[in-house]
RNA sequence: GCCGACGUAGCUCAGCCGGUAGAGCAGCUGAUUCGUAAUCAGCAGGUCCGCGGUUCGAUUCCGCGCGUCGGCUCCA
């Protein structure tokens, strides 16, 4: 007899040794139908595992987050099975689950998306056969024998510890696998192959190149549909498309990986940075600017010449070596070091919108998201060790203000000391404790990435979540115990002795170019009024009204607004359509009525039109809305006046 | 940097098997003067990414280079 404790702490007794399925079945038929696996004494195992002694069981149903991973892992097997059926000579390697699905790396002739349909059809056959997945344990020597013709699998098994090795079989297909798996292939209700690319065996370019085939799978057709809709939505918001359509920026072959910002893109850029400066000033920052081209000596002092040179653009000038800065900190160190500082000066919060260049590999460039030249909204804070906590807290609060203004949620992650690192244990201890206590006081949950810090200090990474729920790491706060040392920075303490300041680097936007791209996608090009490159457009109904419309435009421009006038001899409908497609928040139509009554009719981006708004009310509302940096478009309330 | 796909007018895209290119939008000209998402007509616009090769002939086939995209790799 076995005693089974379920996750609600209820206890069930079984005379025989039941499987997980039996346990589920003893509770309800529906549960048995929805179960895919179970957790037995904190270990995920197959549902058909026999429970031979008293155990604590948690049944995993299709609703549980782990279930999707199990399903996708099984789907990877099904794909490999299908591919092996279609291309008998392929050699399998590994097939893991990834965030949005799964892939399988297979040594085979290159295939393309055109081959997907065939593979998917074969997969459908396997799924419709509802093949059970059986686990069996095999001694290592036998496993090696089984895989005589599969060199990659042999290599993997050889690397495993001695003892028994688990295999999973579905029909005539067997694969080395830790499991667990779904009970039978019929659980895969919806799947799709997504893309194919090259990948090296064990990620080493010296090894053969494999075909990495990506797919995704769900328990429900609806989930797959939602996922595909999400991808479509993301594609619609692609910042490269919107950037072209709204005339914000472009790229040219003459400067790969370096963006050209157009006039409208710069309006957004400037509005964003105006706001950034306002917040930083209020938070006690000063702003500086350092050169982008600096002598080799400086890069030797900072260590970049030795460690980062392959990513730097260099130049020989008057027979001396120079490099274009990939980071702002060395220049910032020079500035700090060029003067004596008292402990009374600290903390010093020194910001710099710095233009940096990094020679990234050509294959990684991607729109504004990955470029070779970009601006960082950098700041270096110099302080005494006992100020760490307060300063980090200050940065976190500033981060929160700025992100929330943009409608972005965020979460924090702390990275601690890596194996290879400089500094003493005591320094790391002080630094890490400072970061932790600041985050504790700040009060947000955070994830800890052990050993993920930079070699020169621990860091807090800030991940934002955009309107589609995608996360991006933008902000980072890094403690640096290296630079002050290398540049021999000091301040004079109360004791009249020299002391080494503690320094942090921090960015909030990170790469402003990349952040700009994220904002384009976050807002889908519909920038809120305070950021919109053209805040409003004036449309005269006919040519006779152009002079009056011009007056209106001038008034608004004098009020500090970004205004355009469409005086083309086109139909009103056409001009409205184009204004809407350009995502201009406010469209002001000027007809004889508006001129006679001295009012405005205002169309907002949601298509609502309000007539008879006085110029005064309009200006007041717009100013309030812009000053408050509101994100909504409904300036004039529900009831059209 | 590696693998794959792609590169045609300002933009979006068509162009089967090799016979020097087409559409819509944008632009320009003219007519229309319009009340909340495309008025009509005409005109103009291209080193078909670049350089080589094959061929009587290359936008089309082949090679190399550049760029873009998707992955890989890298990421102080």
Secondary structure tally: strands: 33
CATH class of the largest domain: Alpha Beta
Strand order of the largest sheet: 16-20-21-28-25-24-22-23
- CATH architecture title of the largest domain: 2-Layer Sandwich
> Portion of residues in helices?
25-40%
What number of structural domains do the residues give?
A: 4
Poorly predicted regions? none
* Termini separation: 78 Å
Task: Describe the protein's architecture and organization.
35% of the residues are buried. The protein is built from 20 helices and 33 strands. It starts with a strand and ends in a 14-residue tail after the last helix. Helices cover 35% and strands 28% of the residues. The model has no long low-confidence stretch (mean pLDDT 91). The strands form 8 sheets. The chain has an 8-stranded mixed beta sheet with strand order 16-20-21-28-25-24-22-23. Strands 2-1-5-3-4 form a 5-stranded mixed beta sheet, with helices on both faces. It folds into 4 domains: 2-61, Beta-grasp domain (Ubiquitin-like (UB roll), Roll), CATH 3.10.20; 67-225, Threonyl-trna Synthetase, Chain A, domain 2 (Threonyl-tRNA Synthetase, Chain A, domain 2), CATH 3.30.980.10; 249-523, Bira Bifunctional Protein, Domain 2 (BirA Bifunctional Protein, domain 2); 536-627, Rossmann fold. It has 641 residues and is an alpha+beta fold. The protein binds one RNA strand of 76 nucleotides through strand 12, strand 13, helix 8 and helix 18.
């Amino acid at each position: 007899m076995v005693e089974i404790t379920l996750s609600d702490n209820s206890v069930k007794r079984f005379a025989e040794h039941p499987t997980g399925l039996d346990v589920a079945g003893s509770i309800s038929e529906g549960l048995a139908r929805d179960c895919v696996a179970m957790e037995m004494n904190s270990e995920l195992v197959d549902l058909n595992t026999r429970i031979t002694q008293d155990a604590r069981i948690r049944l995993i149903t299709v609703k549980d987050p782990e279930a999707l991973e199990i399903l996708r892992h099984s789907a990877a097997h099904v794909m490999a099975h299908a591919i092996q059926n279609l291309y008998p000579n392929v050699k399998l390697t590994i097939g893991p689950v990834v965030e949005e699905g799964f892939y399988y790396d297979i040594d085979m002739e290159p295939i393309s998306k055109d081959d997907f349909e065939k593979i998917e059809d074969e997969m459908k056959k396997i799924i419709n056969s509802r093949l059970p997945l059986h686990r069996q344990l095999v001694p290592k020597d036998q496993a090696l024998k089984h895989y005589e013709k599969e060199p990659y699998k042999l290599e993997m098994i050889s690397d495993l510890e001695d003892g028994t090795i688990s295999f999973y079989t579905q029909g005539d297909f067997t694969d080395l696998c830790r499991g667990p798996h779904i009970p039978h292939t019929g659980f895969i209700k919806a799947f799709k192959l997504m893309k194919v690319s090259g990948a090296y065996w064990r990620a080493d370019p010296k090894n053969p190149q494999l075909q990495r085939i990506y797919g995704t799978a769900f328990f429900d057709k609806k989930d797959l549909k939602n996922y595909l809709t999400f991808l479509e939505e993301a594609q619609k918001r692609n910042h490269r498309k919107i950037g072209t359509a709204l005339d914000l920026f472009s790229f040219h072959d003459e400067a790969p990986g370096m963006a050209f910002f157009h006039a409208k893109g710069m309006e957004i850029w400037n509005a964003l940075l105006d706001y950034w400066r306002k917040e930083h000033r209020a938070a006690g920052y000063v702003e500086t600017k350092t050169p982008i081209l600096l002598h080799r000596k400086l890069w030797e002092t900072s260590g970049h010449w030795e460690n980062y040179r392959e990513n730097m653009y260099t130049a020989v000038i008057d027979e001396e070596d120079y490099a274009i800065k990939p980071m702002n900190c060395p220049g910032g160190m020079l500035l700090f070091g060029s003067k004596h500082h008292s402990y009374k000066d600290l903390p010093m919060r020194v910001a710099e919108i710095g233009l940096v260049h990094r020679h990234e590999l050509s294959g990684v460039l991607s729109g504004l998201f990955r470029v070779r030249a970009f601006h960082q909204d950098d700041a270096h804070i110099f302080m005494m060790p006992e100020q760490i906590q307060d300063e980090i807290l200050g940065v976190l609060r500033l981060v929160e203000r700025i992100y929330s203004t943009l409608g972005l949620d965020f979460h924090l992650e702390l990275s601690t000391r890596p194996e290879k690192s400089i500094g003493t244990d005591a320094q790391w201890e002080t630094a890490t404790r400072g970061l932790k206590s600041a985050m504790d006081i700040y009060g947000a949950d955070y994830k800890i990435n052990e050993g993920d810090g930079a070699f020169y200090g621990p860091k807090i990474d800030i991940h934002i979540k955009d309107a589609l729920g995608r996360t991006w790491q933008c902000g980072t706060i890094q403690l640096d115990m290296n630079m002050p040392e290398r540049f021999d920075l000091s301040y004079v303490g109360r004791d009249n002795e020299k002391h080494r300041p503690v320094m942090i680097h921090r960015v909030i936007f990170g790469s402003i170019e990349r952040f700009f791209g994220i904002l384009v996608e976050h807002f889908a090009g519909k920038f809120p009024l305070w950021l919109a490159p053209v805040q409003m457009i004036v449309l005269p109904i006919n040519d006779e009204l152009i002079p009056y419309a011009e007056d209106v435009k001038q008034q608004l421009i004098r009020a500090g607004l970004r205004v355009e006038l469409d005086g083309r001899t086109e139909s009103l409908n056409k001009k409205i359509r184009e204004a809407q497609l350009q995502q201009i928040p406010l469209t002001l139509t000027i007809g004889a009525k508006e001129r006679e009554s001295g009012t405005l009719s205002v169309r907002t981006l949601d298509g609502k039109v309000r007539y008879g708004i006085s110029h005064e009310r309009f200006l007041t509302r717009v100013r309030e809305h812009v000053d408050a940096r509101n994100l909504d478009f409904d300036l004039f309330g529900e009831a059209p006046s």
